[in-house]
Amino acid sequence: MAEPTVMTLDVRDMAPRERHPTIFDRLEALDPGSTLRLVNDHDPAPLRYQLLAEYPDMFNWEPEKQGPKEWIIRMQKVEAESPKAFPSFEE
User: Fold this and answer.
1) I want to staple 72 with a disulfide (CB 3.0 to 4.6 A). Which of 13, 15, 33, 65 is the partner?
2) CATH topology for 6-77?
């Protein structure tokens, strides 16, 4: 398994319509345990709601800086849980 990494994505100069698709492409490409460090020019609350709706329990959300001109959020892909063992029905 690859070593966990932190990748920074600065979307401040990106067209608004391109931001969420680009962010989600980068998040999906992360290895478990790795982090996307997002730099934005506004509060990314709508992104957080979308992330929670589309990928529940897959990413941790940790604000590093919250305004007034720059928001930095660290989104870490959660380590995949090992499959749950089924109880044995043998006697």
Assistant:
1) 65
2) Translation Initiation Factor IF3 (3.30.110)
